[in-house]
Amino acid sequence: MNPNHLKNYIARSLEPVLLQAVKEFPAVVLTGPRQSGKTTLLRRLFNNTSRYVSLEPPDVRMAAVQDPRAFLAMHTPPVIFDEVQYAPDLLPYIKEKIDARRDLCGQYLLTGSQNLLVVKQVTESLAGRAAMLRLLPLTRREIAGDAQAPLIWETDQCDQRTASCAYDSLWKNFLRGGFPELAVNPDRDTALWHASYVQTYLERDVRSLRQVGDLTLFQNFLRALAARSAQLLHLSELSRDLGVAVNTVKAWLSVLEATYQIIMLRPYFANVGKRLVKSPKVYFTDVGTLCYLAGLRDPDHAVSGPMGGPIMETAVLSEIVKTLTHRGEDPQVYFWRTSAGSEIDIVVEHGGKLTPVEVKLSATPRPTMASGIRSFRKDFEKRTTPGYVIHPGNISLPLGPDALAVPFDIL
């Protein structure tokens, strides 16, 4: 492993979960978007105990596909097989090896960038034999060196914590996003890196998952989706604007979800006797990707333009989803909106309780910002905790008995 990677390594919240999984399962499958740090994490934790094999080079891939038993005999456990989606037919033979020594944990560590393919193959071949974990781009707490910090509603000292990140630095960080390569190399050109990432992602993942004949049209689709970030997603409107069929839009959305590029936030439903909005909302997993696709290169333009609110909301949702995912959990996160206009940006379900979260672009919290939280708590009073208004400023402030305003920096 490159010594510089070790020197610049950022500790991940997933580390203790991963170490425990290796003690309990014969195989561990780590999925996530490209460049999220999967290989670096595995080699950081297991470089001294497991050999490393990348399945991306064509000759290695061919050897694995043509004679899988000989390939596995050559690469005995414990072993890391990187980018296993390139040789999915290897998985039944890995199962064969595992079944020969079912009591031996931590035999195979597998990574994959395509959830759609990898999960299907693992479900068919390694059911009950593999732990499935996901690694997304860096959280704010990981970048700050506090990887295991609780979310704001999990601590008793939320009103005593103060933000340390200046307002302008916060928006610069949003433009950069959470990919490790940008986080450990502050001199890298942000726009150039994201341009290269989108292009590489298009060439490798989209073409391998779906036949996308016109990449320019697909890039237009990405930009149109970025412009709709944090909004209700109406497929017919999107397909009409792009001049493509609704089924094509659905297929492209499934590609983006399968490769962890977007989060589809579904509405929260309960029997409260109100008509609720049923369309999902769409967010990009990485706020830096969103800013790049929206054509934003300057923090001032980002915060003052029409995308300021969606960027802030994307950053908050992404932080919550990534933090929970990196604990090995499946985040139960929704939004809530009635046809009468009451709404909550984010609803987090945990421990049988619902925590309402509102996101505001203003750094000056006011009690009126919590009106949606009060409405939500009235409808779900037996199940809700007090809510939170997340803002880009640096002060924590009670907004009545139902809500607390807190800076993004301490979410």
Describe this entry's structure for a reader.
The protein is an alpha/beta fold and 411 residues long. The chain folds into 2 domains: 3-134, Rossmann fold (3-Layer(aba) Sandwich), CATH 3.40.50.300; 140-410, no CATH class. The chain has 18 helices and 13 strands. It has helices spanning 3-7, 15-24, 38-46, 58-66, 68-74, 91-100, 115-125, 140-143, 167-176, 180-184, 190-209, 215-227, 235-242, 246-258, 287-293, 299-304, 308-325, 371-379, and strands spanning 27-31, 51-54, 79-82, 108-112, 130-134, 262-267, 281-284, 333-337, 343-350, 353-359, 387-391, 397-398, 403-407. An 8-stranded mixed beta sheet has the order 7-6-8-9-10-11-13-12, with helices on both faces. Strands 2-3-4-1-5 form a 5-stranded parallel beta sheet, with helices on both faces. Helix 18 links the parallel strand 10 (353-359) and strand 11 (387-391). Helix 4 crosses helix 5 (68-74) and helix 13 packs across helix 14 (246-258). The longest helix has 20 residues, at 190-209. Mean pLDDT is 88; it is low at 1-5.
Secondary structure layout:
Layout: H1 3-7, H2 15-24, E1 27-31, H3 38-46, E2 51-54, H4 58-66, H5 68-74, E3 79-82, H6 91-100, E4 108-112, H7 115-125, E5 130-134, H8 140-143, H9 167-176, H10 180-184, H11 190-209, H12 215-227, H13 235-242, H14 246-258, E6 262-267, E7 281-284, H15 287-293, H16 299-304, H17 308-325, E8 333-337, E9 343-350, E10 353-359, H18 371-379, E11 387-391, E12 397-398, E13 403-407
Parallel strand pairs: 1-4, 1-5, 2-3, 3-4, 6-8, 10-11, 11-13
Antiparallel strand pairs: 6-7, 8-9, 9-10, 12-13
